[in-house]
Inverse folding.
């Protein structure tokens, strides 16, 4: 049970951590100043959420570790984030679509998690949900704005949708430890979120004039520590200093 | 009378100066001499561009922050800098020039930004040194600018100063960690101080005698203290802070002078200063290219936004 809680806390913490890393890469890369700041702001929210999850995971762990250790000192295979958040900021459309897919997911998941029988899970969800509502409004607005803006923005958005759709299968996978938690009323049935997720995504797709990609989505196994080719480079970057000076305190 | 004022109505000019002397703020719709407006257009936009270009050297480390806390702080800090850019562009727009135009002048090389941001951020302690020294120098300047005579600029500076003092503290905190850390960390801290000390002193601009626009700016209270006065204030404040860290400023003549009550120091290498101003600093081309490239790459997003806004407006009218 404790191990299952740890696994899920890591899954949530890592997903927010990697997404926040992609968002922080956008600093000074925004299409205009206001949006630059908005992206950093959303990234900051994700770091905050990640920190809460990783702190709890560290408490649940049998080892003497903290949230920083979990964020910075693990090997690639030990990260359990969904692969979607590893996808790079190809252009602003990719940033928007990646965020939108995650925001809808987080909105549904956190809404249910507020009723978790684990009080820490419920508390993190309660706090995060306030932020996620804003994120979802922001990314949904951009979906519609880009989808219904110019022909160029429409095309770029559709390209991003087509590419990123591939990674959405991961979101609803229930490995054994998640199944155990669901049975105990600690997390919702993730597979059960899929139809609501599809419904909400399709509503915005319709408004934005986006076509749902036709290919079948496969889960890519991120919960067994499978990552995209992008992941290793991210680790090289953010683990650089802790790896270089292992005894240093920052 | 100054040549720049020869086309102004002498009565209006007299009233204008009387307001300045009485510490009444000048507001956007008030009469102001054209030279005053031009001075502010130059100074406020330069200040805004500096905040925005300044996001780049710090952004260079944002993906390599060594702890969750450090990453949160640096992201929030850079976000603040961008926010300062926004306030300042808004203040500058009250002078009748649009943000687009200001950016165009920046990209054409007609507008400048603080040369200090052309230096490289090479190790993590540089993030500390930038906060401590660069923001520290900026604060000395900006505290003085809170009382500047142009209302929108003065009000923007009040907000900015509050955040800048937080930035300086976060920078100094990084320096404390590094200076008290492992030998490698201390070495990084000293290296950062060595490289950022003189660029920070340069931030106050040329010596008073070589500062071409200073006298009218002082008379109009856009500027309230001279470059050299502010620079000395900064040195007097900062050297003891370096001593507390156990670090040494890279100037062997930098010693407290009992007679003057100030620290003595070796003058700046002005050739380096002017080279950077003229575009030959270590990263001038890189910083500008980055800004131009990102601006160009964002064009389709801005166009989409405008197109969508127009469509929506039409729908609402119909």
């Amino acid at each position: 049970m404790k191990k299952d809680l740890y696994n899920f806390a890591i899954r949530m913490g890592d997903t927010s951590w990697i997404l926040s890393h992609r968002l922080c890469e956008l600093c000074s890369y925004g299409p205009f100043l206001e949006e630059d700041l908005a992206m950093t702001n959303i990234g900051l929210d994700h770091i905050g959420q990640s920190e809460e999850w990783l702190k709890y995971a560290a408490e649940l762990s049998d080892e003497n570790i903290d949230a920083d250790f979990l964020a910075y000192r693990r090997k690639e295979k030990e990260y359990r984030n969904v692969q979607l958040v590893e996808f790079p900021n190809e252009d602003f459309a990719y940033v928007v679509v990646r965020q939108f897919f995650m925001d809808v997911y987080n909105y549904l998941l956190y809404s249910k998690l507020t009723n978790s029988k684990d009080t820490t899970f419920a508390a993190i969800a309660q706090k995060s949900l306030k932020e996620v509502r804003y994120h979802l409004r922001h990314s949904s607005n951009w979906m519609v704005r880009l989808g219904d803006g110019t022909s160029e923005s429409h095309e770029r958005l559709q390209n991003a949708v087509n590419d990123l759709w591939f990674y959405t299968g991961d979101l609803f996978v229930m490995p054994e430890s998640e199944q155990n938690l669901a049975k105990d009323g600690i997390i919702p049935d993730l597979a059960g979120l899929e139809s609501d997720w599809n419904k909400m995504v399709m509503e915005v797709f319709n408004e934005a004039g986006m076509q749902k990609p036709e290919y079948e989505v496969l889960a890519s196994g991120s919960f067994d520590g499978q990552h995209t080719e992008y992941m290793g480079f991210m680790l090289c970057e953010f683990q650089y200093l802790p790896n270089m000076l292992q005894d240093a305190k920052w | 009378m100054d040549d720049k004022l020869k086309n102004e109505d002498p009565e209006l000019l007299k009233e204008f100066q009387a307001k300045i002397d009485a510490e009444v703020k000048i507001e956007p719709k008030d009469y102001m001499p054209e030279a005053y407006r031009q001075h502010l257009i130059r100074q406020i936009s330069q200040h805004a561009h500096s905040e925005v270009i300044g996001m780049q050297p710090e952004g260079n480390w944002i993906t390599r922050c060594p702890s969750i806390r450090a990453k949160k702080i640096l992201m929030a800090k850079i976000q603040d800098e961008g926010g300062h850019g926004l306030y300042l562009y808004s203040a500058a727009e009250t002078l009748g020039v649009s943000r687009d135009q200001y950016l165009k002048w920046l990209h054409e090389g007609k507008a400048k930004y603080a040369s200090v941001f052309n230096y490289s951020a090479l190790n993590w302690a540089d993030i500390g040194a930038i906060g401590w020294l660069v923001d520290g120098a900026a604060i000395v300047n900006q505290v003085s600018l809170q009382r500047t005579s142009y209302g929108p600029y003065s009000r923007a500076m009040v907000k900015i100063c509050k955040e800048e003092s937080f930035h300086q503290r976060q920078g100094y905190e990084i320096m404390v960690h590094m200076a008290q850390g492992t030998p490698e960390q201390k070495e990084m801290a000293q290296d950062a101080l060595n490289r950022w000390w003189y660029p920070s002193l340069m931030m106050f601009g040329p010596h008073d005698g070589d500062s071409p626009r200073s006298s009218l700016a002082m008379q109009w209270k856009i500027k309230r203290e001279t470059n050299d006065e502010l620079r000395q204030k900064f040195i007097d404040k900062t050297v003891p802070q370096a001593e507390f860290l156990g670090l040494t400023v890279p100037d062997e003549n930098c010693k407290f002078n009992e007679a003057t009550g100030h620290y003595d120091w070796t003058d700046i290498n002005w050739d380096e200063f002017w080279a950077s101003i003229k575009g030959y600093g270590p990263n001038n081309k890189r910083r500008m290219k980055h800004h131009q490239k990102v601006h160009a790459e964002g064009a389709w997003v801005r166009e989409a936004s405008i197109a969508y806004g127009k469509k929506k407006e039409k729908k609402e009218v119909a």
